[in-house]
C-alpha cells in the first residue's frame, strides 16, 4: 500500500475517533468540568509526546542521514519547527474562529454564526494532527502507526469536549454530536497533504516532520493547556497530561 494511501487512511481513522469521543452526549449525562479538563490534559500529553518522539526525533535522524552530523540537521529542524508554529499562528489571525478561553477572534468574527466559529477553531486544531499522521506514514509504517493511534486516542476526549461545549451553548444533542464528529473529517485532508508532499521528495521529510511538530506544539501551548487551567483544575489537568504523555511514549516504543 502506498504511503499516501496509508497516510490518508491512518488520518481518517484518527479523525473518526473525534466522533467516537462525542457519542456519550447522545446517551448520557455530560462529564463534570474537572473531568473534561483532565481529558483535555490527556490530549495535550499525547500531542506533546507525539511531537517530540514521533516527529522531532525522526526529523533530526532524517536530516542527519542526508546532511551528516553537525549544525545543519539541527538548523533544518529548528527552522521547520518555527515555520509550523508560525503557520498555525497565521491561521489564528486570518480565519474567524472562537477559542473556548478568549472568545471570538479573526476578521468578521462578529458577523458569523457561533457554530461556524467553533467549526473554524477545531479545523485549525485538527489540520496539524492529520498532517502529522500523513508525514509519519510517509516516513514509514513503524512511525505512522503509533502517531495514528496516539492522535486517535487524544481525539476522543477532544470530540467529547467540543460536543459538551456546544451543548452548553444551547445546541441539541444530535447537532452537537454531528458538529463535533464533522470536525475530525479535516484530518484525512491534512494526512493527504502531508504524505503527498513528503512522497514527492525525500528531502522534504525532515521539514515535514518538524513542521507538523511545530503546528501541534502551538496548539498545545496556545489553546489546550490554557483551557485546562482556567477553572482551577490544574492538578487534574496535569495528571491527565502526564498520563497522555506516558501512554504515547509507550505506544511509540512498542508499536514503532
Secondary-structure blueprint of this entry?
Blueprint: H1 3-22, H2 24-27, H3 33-67, H4 71-94, E1 97-99, E2 103-105, H5 114-139, H6 141-168, H7 173-183, H8 186-200, H9 205-229, H10 234-255
Antiparallel strand pairs: 1-2
Short description:
The chain is an all-alpha fold and 256 residues long. The chain is built from 10 helices and 2 strands; from the N terminus they run ααααββαααααα. The longest helix is centred in the N-terminal third of the chain and has 35 residues, at 33-67.
Keywords for this entry:
2 strands; single chain; 256 residues; 10 helices
Alpha-carbon distance between the termini? 18 Å
Tell me the overall shape.
Answer: globular
SSE order, as H and E? HHHHEEHHHHHH
| Major β-sheet profile | 2 strands, antiparallel
Poorly predicted ranges: 111-115
**Rg (CA only):** 18 Å
- Beta content comes to under 5%
Number of domains: 1
- How are the strands of the biggest sheet laid out side by side? 1-2
Helical content, roughly?
A: over 70%
Task: Explain how this protein is built.
The longest helix is centred in the first third of the chain and has 35 residues. A two-stranded antiparallel sheet has the order 1-2. The chain is 82% helix and 2% strand. A hairpin with a 3-residue loop joins strand 1 and strand 2. About 2% of the residues have low confidence. The protein has one domain. It contains ten helices and two strands, in the order ααααββαααααα. By secondary structure, it is an all-alpha fold.
Amino acid at each position: 500500500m502506498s504511503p499516501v494511501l496509508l497516510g490518508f487512511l491512518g488520518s481518517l481513522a484518527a479523525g473518526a475517533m473525534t466522533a467516537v469521543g462525542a457519542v456519550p452526549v447522545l446517551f448520557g449525562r455530560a462529564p463534570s468540568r474537572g473531568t473534561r479538563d483532565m481529558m483535555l490534559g490527556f490530549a495535550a500529553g499525547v500531542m506533546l509526546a507525539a511531537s517530540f518522539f514521533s516527529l522531532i526525533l525522526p526529523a533530526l535522524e532524517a536530516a542527519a542521514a542526508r546532511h551528516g552530523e553537525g549544525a545543519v540537521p539541527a538548523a533544518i529542524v529548528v527552522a521547520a519547527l518555527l515555520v509550523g508554529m508560525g503557520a498555525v499562528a497565521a491561521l489564528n489571525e486570518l480565519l474567524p474562529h472562537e477559542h473556548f478561553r478568549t472568545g471570538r477572534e479573526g476578521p468578521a468574527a462578529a458577523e458569523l454564526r457561533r457554530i461556524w466559529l467553533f467549526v473554524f477553531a477545531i479545523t485549525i486544531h485538527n489540520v496539524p494532527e492529520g498532517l502529522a499522521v500523513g508525514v509519519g506514514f510517509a516516513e514509514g509504517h513503524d512511525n505512522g502507526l503509533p502517531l495514528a493511534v496516539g492522535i486517535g486516542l487524544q481525539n476522543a476526549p477532544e470530540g467529547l469536549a467540543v460536543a459538551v461545549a456546544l451543548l452548553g451553548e444551547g445546541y441539541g444533542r444530535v447537532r452537537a454530536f454531528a458538529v463535533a464528529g464533522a470536525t475530525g473529517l479535516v484530518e484525512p485532508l491534512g494526512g493527504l497533504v502531508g504524505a503527498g508532499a513528503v512522497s514527492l521528495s525525500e528531502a522534504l521529510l525532515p521539514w515535514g516532520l518538524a513542521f507538523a511538530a511545530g503546528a501541534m506544539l502551538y496548539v498545545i501551548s496556545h489553546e489546550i493547556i490554557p483551557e485546562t487551567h482556567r477553572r482551577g483544575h490544574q492538578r487534574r489537568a496535569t495528571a491527565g497530561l502526564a498520563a497522555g504523555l506516558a501512554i504515547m511514549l509507550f505506544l511509540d516504543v512498542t508499536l514503532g
